[in-house]
Amino acid sequence: MRPDQRARRANGIISAFIIAFFIVHGALGCALLVCGFNDAFSVAVWAGVAVMVAHVVLCVATSVYQLTDTVRPPSVHKKRHLALKWVTGGLLALVALVHVLCFRVLGESGEALTIPAGLVIVAVAAFLSAHICVGSKSLLKDIGLDRSLRPVVRAVAVIAGVAFGLIAVLNALGVIQP
Question: Of 8, 2, 4, nearest to 142 (Cα)?
Answer without folding.
Answer: 8
